[in-house]
Amino acid sequence: MTMKKLGTFCKAHKAVTVYAILVLLIVLVAVFAKVIAPYSPTEASLRDAFQPPSAAHKFGTDFMGRDLFSRIIYGTRASLSSALILVAAAMVIGGLLGIIAGFAGGVVDAVIMRVCDTMLSFPDLILAIAIAGILGPSFVNAIIAILAVSWTKYARLARSMVLKIKQRDYIAAARTTGSRARHILFTYMVPNALPTLLTTAVLDIGTTILGISGLSFLGFGIQPPTPEWGYMLSEGRSYMQTYPWLMIFPGLAIFITVVAFNLLGDSVRDVLDPGKARKHKKKKRKLNKA
Amino acid sequence: MKLKKIFALLLVVCMTAALLAGCGGNSAGSDTANTTPADTAPASSDTGADTAPASSDASAPADTAPAASGKTQLNVVSDMFSQPNIHDLSPSWFVVRLGLAETLVRFGEDSSYQPWLATSWEVADDNLTWTFHLQEGVKFSNGADMTATKVKESIEYLYEDQDPANGGVGDALTFMTYTSITADDAANTVTIVTTEPVPDMPGVMAYPLFAIIDAEATRGRDMLLEGPIGTGPYVVTSYTDGHDYQLAKNPYYWDGEVPFETVNYVKVAEESSRYNALLDGSADIATHIQASNLPALESAGYAVSNVSGARDGYFHVNFEGPMGNDALRKAVFMAIDDETVCDITTGGSYTAGYTPLAPIFTQWGGADIPDVTAYNPEEAMKILDEAGIKDTDGDGWRELDGQNILLTYVTVTGRQMADIAQAHATLIQAIGVNCEVKVVDSQGEYMTNGTFDMVNSNEMIVPTGDPVNFLSHWYSESGTGYNYARYSNPDFDKAFEALKTEMDVSKRNEYVKQLQQIMVDDSVLLLGGYYNFNICSAPSVTGVVQPPCDFYWITKDIKPAA
Q: What ipTM was predicted for this assembly?
């Protein structure tokens, strides 16, 4: 039965299906990294450094003689897990704060939203670099740094959703029948805000991967020898001319993953928020005509 | 409605204006923000009247014909940048590197002492009184003559600024302290009487901190904005901190024609960008190109001037941590395959070795010292096993006194030191000792706090043509602010104290050799390699040389190619 449901869904939403399979493949690569990767990602053989791509080393080797293919496969874990954790944390923290702000109103709303505005007035990556710089270079600190600047978007979004439904009749009805604030929050507010927050979150995964890679590239993220794409790019950049594969393959990995998540995010939005999608399409058609 | 339209129009105009303002940034060559007119125009001050450039027509700006190739600007890209503060230790290097100021003595290609602003010097029998005979006809960039009195004032000005009593940092005092300086303008000599014997006095005078400036004129300006008034071939016209320097020729230069009208020096931290700037012709000179890129440059007709041995890329070993254990330390040193690390990991940017001072300095006998910790992982593991440093809990890593060992390398990324640290860590793990690398922005606080097992340093070993300053890192009296290894050995201290005051060159060399021997025997300095640093230049210019001392980059000898 469920399989049949899934089948009809897939038929109805071909784009989502294709992109979801793509993303699923990437996730599987992360999960089965141990099976796929021919070598250990940290196993170095100094004498075999800088070997060009060959049968033994599909993507060549880096300056420590480590197999680049294995490192990229394992790097999927760092990039994916960090991006997912980060986006989930930002959604939960930002979403809850936004709902509380919208629902409570008054001083609570003012305080939360002014903090939010303050965070938004900084360029986000620069602020993240500053935070990571103060906390010291580590993967957890990089995630905290990006989290500190990315929750605001969700807070604003959730708040606006809550404000929209706050004055609806059914909320008033719930109040008159004596529902507690917590009950109203979790039965009405959260479910209402969730689809929009989720769409935004899926759309955000790609950018988040870029943000984390960026911090790692600058040396604020993961510490060697753990494989991470941004840091691998950074390691390879001084050999760009002589050993270009050190930059090409990590770059490709980032590119493919980010594109896959962005496409999935776009199509998920089309499914969850058909109104917006229709408008979007109409606009497109109009533009095409013009 | 109309008001709304007007408002909208106003907004658009404002935004457009802002946009244009943003686009109209100054290009590097036309920045005149910090222009220092006193430097570029022939002096009209009181000194200018009687020292007008009548006698030196060749160097007056109006008479200068452009060079044969028509090239009038020298473009330099480098990873280094400092403010032009001649009274601060490392910025002072910069002032001399840019050709803004010169020293009494200079280092030759073989690190020997060569005359520069002084033609000769001698020390009296008391080993304290040094007399420097000055070059005739030297002028500062403001046209003033460099008299003996000016030289005396310059040194006094330095000590005044450096004196801790005046809030100075006191670096100059670690080089030498004096009881008196006397200037004899008629004989054109300066006599310095030091408080205690300073065997490397000419080397001290060759150190950039001691570059000669017009103290009187420099006091009247903001040195951080305008630079000092020196005797070098170029003067600062403007600079943007951390980004670029604009230099112009010094119209009063004393030592022949200055080849370029202007010099554009830009900091480019990224090595690959410097390399590309050379290739695409936007730079004539680039510093510190990675070894792996050099063959391609050379085959494309670029000149590479390379120096090895004057700079050590090494790690201080913390004797207060697990590395204080003799067996562990020896095993770690034996685990390092230095040839592979230098030749392959760094691509030849470093040359492998084990003595603190490179064997090319034959006077310090590095070649005669046997390598007691040559690469031998099997032997290293045997030493650990015999010392009871074994893996007893089966986690794959050895323990020391029942505690798991985790050695931490603290390193910056510059000059590939992080690559070396990672390679070392891999090799150390191969003998069963767990080891991690911590890449940091600056290692200073780790050094002084002792929160490391190995911490990187990349250091000139003979800053004054003599290794005494470098070797004082391991002198127990230096304190943890300089003896980062927290090393203490009475034999070392004794030999070091003798070296400090010995004037006889051959005896000094003997002491240095003795100190090296102790350091190798005790496995004190974990050498990454001797750094091969370079300056590369395009076919558009000639005469670009990387000197071993690293003090002279932009010189009067760099000329447009014919």
A: 0.71
